[in-house]
Design a protein that fits this description.
5-stranded parallel β-sheet; 466 residues; 5-stranded antiparallel β-sheet; ATP binding; alpha/beta; transcription regulation
Length: 466
């Protein structure tokens, strides 16, 4: 009977995650249940009516996945977090959070949690002959949208490298889709039925990374419990380390040792454990720039860089913009229950001419924003943020940005300032060698930045390369 199947699935739901939390549009907990024993008195009765930040005081509105899902419509998958309960107890967890949308409005969020502290990290539920694993939520190669030569080459490389176990270094600007590439490699590999764990190295203090990577032994420090790190949990699978250039150099040395020896030792432990994990690392800058600025150890870079995959920025594959636009329109039609057919010719021309400093992520977010204001079946110019339509959006000679024409993250703002700064100094300098000296950077680093920002110098004039 179908009802019996559903009943068995729900009553055995604890077989594939350890807890579930549902919050409303104000991020107030409306349902919370744990399927594992716990010693911190965390249950539905004493968490209803609170926010996740009340339950876990180390979280903020910007670091809570539930809060971000409600506020920004953001989905988080396989995100490792350290949760510190009001009692002082710390718990390591892998979290999946999704916004709940009704009639185009976010009305809440649902979060499922797997506690790393658990003795076993169960990743599947068997229901008759049906097996559902965590990998069902991962991207695959066909999820990479585009028909440009750059994307065709990237997909070809993903297919080739997925057949091996070599460590991989992915580099590309923010918003290009590096984790999508990493998940696609895992999904196409022989490891696809084992865990894929993603860790953003910039999101966790360096003092905690070692315990997250390698685990801890009870009593190794005050309050420490015996728990596995992500390298043990992902044994047989893949670990994706994003923004490794933000990692402390000493921690990079320990990571290199684990990769080389294929062994890890928990903090406070003495017995090394063998691990079989594929490492995929990512950085949001050119590798040579990170090496020149001593943000990646050379020995770690050489170990990871046997296979390098560059994810091209959107401005270098503008032929893919119509495909991406169509894809995102389908996504938001489904989420917001609308029936948008496409964009106006004016919008189409703009989308193909704009440089998209935030890459695919910015394009996706701009279309989502336009959906909120679209009043017909065609997205028009006025449905977009007015900041996209300023006359001086792409000046031939970049000038110092101001608060009126730049809109983006701090990192994007710094990059915009750096581009304008180099352009202005370049106009006043007779040679690249002299410019590098004046900027107190190497010629190699200067060349990298000129390519990155598409700047060229000739006869003391700075122009943007089209």
């Amino acid at each position: 009977m179908l009802n019996d199947v559903y009943y068995n699935l729900v009553t055995n739901i604890g077989n594939f995650f350890d807890g579930i939390m549902i919050v409303d549009e104000n991020c107030i907990v409306r349902y919370n249940r744990l399927f594992v024993d716990n010693d911190i008195n965390l249950n539905e009765k004493n968490s209803i009516g609170k926010t996740p930040m009340d339950i876990w005081p180390n979280l903020t509105a910007e670091t809570s996945t539930c809060s971000r899902a409600v506020k920004y419509g953001e989905t988080s998958t396989n995100q490792t977090q350290i949760l510190r309960h009001a009692s002082g107890r710390e718990i390591s967890a892998v979290d999946n959070t999704f916004p709940i949308v009704e009639n185009g409005q976010i009305i809440g969020a649902i979060s499922t949690t797997k506690f790393i502290d658990a003795l076993t990290f169960r990743n599947r539920i068997d229901l008759s002959n049906l097996t559902v694993t965590h990998t069902d939520d991962l991207y695959m190669t066909q999820d990479i949208i585009g028909a440009s030569e750059e994307i065709k080459l990237l997909k070809y490389k993903i297919h080739k490298v997925s057949q091996t176990n070599t460590s991989i270094l992915i580099y590309g600007e923010t918003g290009t889709g590096k984790e999508l590439v990493a998940q696609s490699i895992h999904s196409s590999s022989t490891r696809k039925n084992n865990l894929f764990i993603s860790q953003n190295c910039a999101a966790i203090p360096n003092t905690l990374l070692e315990s997250i990577f390698f685990g801890t032994t009870k009593g190794s420090y005050t309050g420490a419990e015996s728990k596995a790190g992500i390298f043990e949990l992902a044994n047989g699978g893949t670990v994706f380390l994003d923004e490794i250039n933000s990692m402390d150099l000493n921690m990079q040395a320990k990571l290199l040792k684990a990769i080389e020896e294929k062994k890890i030792t928990r903090i406070g432990g003495s017995a090394p454990k063998k691990i079989d994990v594929r490492i995929i690392a990512a950085i949001n800058e050119h590798p040579q720039c990170c090496i020149n600025e001593n943000r990646i150890r050379k020995d770690l870079f050489y170990r990871l860089s046997g296979v390098q995959l560059e994810v091209p920025p959107l401005r270098e594959r503008k032929g893919d913009i119509p495909y991406l636009t169509t894809h995102f329109i389908k996504v938001y039609n489904k989420e917001m229950k609308k029936n948008i057919k496409g964009v106006s010719p004016e919008v189409s021309d703009f989308l193909k001419s704009y440089d998209w400093p935030g890459n695919v992520r910015e394009l996706k977010n701009s279309i989502e924003g336009a959906f909120n204001f679209a009043s017909s079946s065609i997205i028009e110019k006025d449905d977009f943020s007015r900041l996209y339509w300023l006359d001086d959006q792409t000046p031939s000679t970049p000038s110092y940005p101001d608060q009126y024409w730049f809109n983006g993250s701090l990192k994007e703002g710094l990059e915009t300032f750096e581009k304008a700064f180099i352009a202005q100094r370049g106009e006043q300098t007779s040679s690249l060698a002299k410019l590098a000296d004046e900027l107190k950077i190497s010629r190699q680093t200067l060349n990298y930045k000129l390519n990155k920002y598409q700047l060229k110098f000739g006869r003391n004039k700075s122009t943007k390369v089209k």
